[in-house]
Amino acid sequence: xxxxxxxxxxxxxxxxxxxxxxxxxxxxxxxxxxxxxxxxxxxxxxxxxxxxxxxxxxxxxxxxxxxxxxxxxxxxxxxxxxxxxxxxxxxxxxxxxxxxxxxxxxxxxxxxxxxxxxxxxxxxxxxxxxxxxxxxxxxxxxxxxxxxxxxxxxxxxxxxxxxxx
Length: 165
Hints:
Elements (H helix, E strand, L loop, with lengths): L16 H18 L6 H5 L9 H21 L3 H4 L17 H19 L7 E2 L7 E2 H27 L2
Antiparallel strand pairs: 1-2
Helix pairs in contact: 1-5, 1-6, 3-5, 3-6
């Protein structure tokens, strides 16, 4: 099973900006996938809000996010070619085969692929495959960090509700 690098944000203060961005993103990736640890399959799938948001769905969506921003945007391949949903809303939909283990594994693999896809890029390099048009990697990192931070907050609240029932 691929593992996350041991870098934590507080250990990269004196590092270049790219290493700092990556450390913060990795901390949020790790927190989001770990929100499923210790839950039952039923708990991970349980809907506690009116939207499609579930803890398992959040991690599945985060896998979609990785592929949109670090596959589609970098390689210019279409979502159909990548094998991901056409829209963010569809990425929350759970299939019968989605389990905690399978969704966590898919997320870890997508994160590892994202790291690989950006390993040779600089923050000012332009990614040309996003629907918004060309964007610098720096902006993409900030956008992904914002999205992961929001979803980590959602996950914290949902997990707290599940564990306090």
